[in-house]
Amino acid sequence: xxxxxxxxxxxxxxxxxxxxxxxxxxxxxxxxxxxxxxxxxxxxxxxxxxxxxxxxxxxx
Length: 60
Known about the structure:
Helix-turn-helix domain-containing protein
């Protein structure tokens, strides 16, 4: 595990639950928020460590 979170991939629904917003909000705003997304085929995924870093940088 790396500092600040793992490399585990999260779905937009998991990120939304963590951030207490809807999954539609995550899908529409992740670029504006500066979150890095990974495409797995046609699916959108987020690395846990990137979400942790975003929260620490902006709310931490």
